[in-house]
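Honest question from a wet-lab person: if I give you the sequences of every part of a complex, can you actually get the arrangement of the whole thing, not just the pieces? Trying it with mine:
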Amino acid sequence: MTLVRWNPARELASMEIDRLNQMFSDFYGGVSRSWVPAVDVYETDTHEFVLKAELPEVKREDIDITFDNGVLTLKGERKAEVETSRDNYHRVERHHGSFTRSFTLPATVDAARIQASYKDGVLTIRVPQREEAKPKQIEIEAD
Amino acid sequence: MMTQQWDVMRELATMQDRMNRIWGNVYDRGREDVSGAGAWLPAVDIYETGDKEIVLKAELPGLKREDIDLTVENNTLTIRGVRRREDGVADGQYHRSERVYGACSRSFTLPNTVDPSRVKAEYRDGVLAVRLPLREEAKPRQIAVDVD
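Yes, you can. This is the full assembly:
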């Protein structure tokens, strides 16, 4: 077993950020708590937008993706464990409840060809752009 | 000067921002640690089921099975993993990067009542579920009180 030097700063940071956020969200949110999944967005060489959202253990049928007026919205819910009651928890760090995130996409996206897949807890949404959105090489004419 | 009513909520929100900034700075310092410890900590739930086993669930979305390493040694359960960046995507192609990449590691001390030889784990939908059955003798027993 490798021994790791105890780093109070790391310990505190990991503890306090989560706890404080929890405290504040409890205070603001009351009963209906929501969470924010982490999302990466990148553009491929073929000018397709790829959006990847971390949604571990969210069922496919509990994820709702809509595209309306240039805004892509993902909504969903992670339901609590069925095999146990809250009293039997020793540690709760994961978020349960609903989430919503929206992203404004450029007008050049091809809404009809948006595709989504879910693997290993990551939702991948591929948003291709229309042909005219792709960069064009412009020739300089000589006199 | 305009007089404004004191707004507790706004005051608190400002405070939260400030605190996050303070802890964020400490956190960044922690990340530079080169001791080999994990750079990020997966969120973990631990609960006990009715069948007398402890279940530990760690969120490891986007990891490959072969990049997850689970060991039990001297009553310490350690989860290690690596989340790798997308192949062929340069930093400049990112519009938004919120996910954390690199190595993660977390250790938990198991109670003596766990039977380490029967620990089972599965990875599904980005969650590693470790099932730790309790020893027979650890289960509650009814003790009859004899009457003289």
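Two things worth pointing out. Chain B touches chain A through 55 residues (CB under 8 Å). Confidence is low (pLDDT under 50) at residues 29-38 of chain B.
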